[in-house]
Design goal:
This protein has 4 domains: 85 residues, no CATH class; 74 residues, Resuscitation-promoting factor rpfb (Resuscitation-promoting factor rpfb fold, Single Sheet), CATH 2.20.230.10; 80 residues, Roll (SH3 type barrels), CATH 2.30.30; 164 residues, Lysozyme (Orthogonal Bundle), CATH 1.10.530.10. The chain is of the alpha+beta class and 461 residues long. The protein contains 18 helices and 13 strands.
Length: 461
């Protein structure tokens, strides 16, 4: 019986229902027919499912146990047919419930929506984990930075006097991670392994040093000639005189008003207002070079060495000399410079002899024989015995060689062209030493020196 019921189709089920209604009429069935209206399938966009069999009392079939399974199948079939009738394929959700103006929007939503991937959602949320771990690790401890005012540095300049060193400590902490990312930590304990060492920085406060862009140990220059003092006091004892433009080494800065300097190994104090620098006064370096040459000029200076002057210095000295009326020295300054370099003799000394002996080139011997020195002449017949040269430069070179070989250098000294000094008339490399055998006038050396001073002083013009 069960096999037969299972093999029946939907048409057979409906046919059985109709036969049952006609073959077994009773009061209950009559009532059933009256109460249940025929099923109406509406397509007016509303749900109406008069479930006509809810009044169908399955108890009528209990009298026949063979029909129980078929009744269940019939009920399911009727339910399926009802769903198919009330939800046809061409009837959508939008036709039943949506307003006409919303149909298009809802349709687009239905077409474009993405279905939820529950597996993906579960996987993602499974990764949302919060993990805590306790660690003990060695960590650096930052050092402090200390700033100190230093009056011996230019204002605002910073100098590191001590580098900082990181400290070390053991730290026990609980770290929290969320999705593998560090979130926070709670320090449980710390143990110091080594203390940090502070970094120390000096900040300069000196206006004087900042103004001149200098530091302790640098070279500075005198603005005016002044005396070094034994102590930083105007009334203190003088220890040395320093000429204008000369350089000194800055040693100390006890105050903004006074500083300690060294001048040729002589130490003393001078007011900072009397000092300048190459930054503040750019041409002071050149002036210092000249002053360094001039301070060596004295009557006892050694003449068997160069003057230290440049060719431009010679030009400056010999150009527009007031007493050089015939421009003889102006026209021949290069000859004096070349003789100095070639024969290692002071060229200013050589020119001063020429000025003294020729009366600034106005003597008859100088004019007729181009001999500025009266070289070769004797007191008995100075003009006749003097040598004659074709050019002034020739006489200048001849006298330079003679002085170097016979008057200025000790015997055996290497001089020019591989020769050595004969020293026939050598009595020292000074003016007075040359004077001993060169001139009969015992005051010759002082007269020559005055011309030397005149020429050297032209460097300050």
């Amino acid at each position: 019986m069960l096999d037969d019921n299972n093999n029946r189709n939907l048409s057979d089920v409906f046919r059985e229902l109709q036969e049952l209604q006609h073959t077994q009429p009773n009061e209950k069935n009559t009532k059933f027919k009256k109460r249940n209206k025929p099923v109406k399938i509406r397509t007016n966009r509303s749900f109406s499912f008069p479930f006509c069999i809810n009044r169908f009392n399955m108890g009528h079939y209990n009298r026949n146990s063979d029909l129980q399974l078929s009744h269940i199948i019939i009920g399911c079939a009727i339910l399926i047919v009802g769903l198919a009738v009330f939800f046809p394929k061409n009837t959508s959700f939008t036709q039943s419930y949506a307003k006409e103006e919303d149909v298009q929007a809802i349709s687009e939503y239905e077409l474009n929506r993405h279905r939820l991937n529950m597996q993906s959602i579960i996987s993602e949320n499974a990764d949302m984990d919060r993990v805590k771990e306790q660690v003990t690790e060695e960590r650096d401890v930052e050092f402090l930075t200390e700033y100190n005012n230093n009056p011996t540095l230019p204002k605002s300049e910073e100098v590191v006097t001590q580098e900082g060193v990181l400290g070390k400590e053991n730290v026990t902490a609980v770290k929290t991670y969320e999705n593998g990312n560090f979130v926070e930590e709670i320090i449980l304990s710390k143990e110091t392994l080594s203390e940090p060492v502070s970094k120390k920085i000096d900040i300069g406060t000196s206006e004087f040093l900042a103004k001149h862009k200098i530091h302790i140990g640098d070279i500075v220059y005198f603005v005016n000639t002044a005396n070094l003092k034994e102590t930083p006091d105007d009334k203190a004892k003088d220890v040395a005189e320093v000429k204008k433009s000369l350089d000194v080494k800055l040693l100390e800065l006890p105050s903004e008003e006074w500083c300690k300097v060294s001048f040729d190994n002589v130490e003393g104090y001078i007011k900072t207002s009397n000092l300048t620098s190459a930054y503040t006064t750019p041409n002071i370096v050149e002036k210092n070079r000249i002053q360094r040459i001039l301070i060596k000029v004295n009557i006892d200076m050694e003449l068997n060495r160069t003057s230290g002057l440049t060719l431009n210095d010679y030009k400056k000295i010999f150009t527009n000399l007031p007493n050089d009326r015939n421009n003889i020295f102006q026209d021949n300054y290069t000859a004096f410079y070349n003789a100095e370099k070639k024969y290692n003799i002071n060229g200013i000394f050589l020119a001063s002899i020429a000025i003294h002996e020729s009366g600034w080139g106005t003597s008859q011997i100088a004019e007729d024989k181009k001999n500025l020195f009266g070289y070769g002449s004797y007191d008995s017949s100075p003009y006749e015995s003097s040598m004659e040269f074709s050019e002034y430069s020739e006489g200048i070179e001849t006298v330079a060689k003679s002085l170097v070989k016979y008057y200025l250098n000790p015997s055996g000294t290497k001089i020019y062209d591989g020769e050595t000094a004969a020293a026939w008339y050598y009595n020292g490399p000074t003016l007075s030493g040359v004077n001993t055998r060169y001139a009969s006038d015992s005051d010759w050396h002082t007269k020559v020196y005055k011309y030397m001073e005149t020429l050297y002083n032209r460097l300050n013009n």
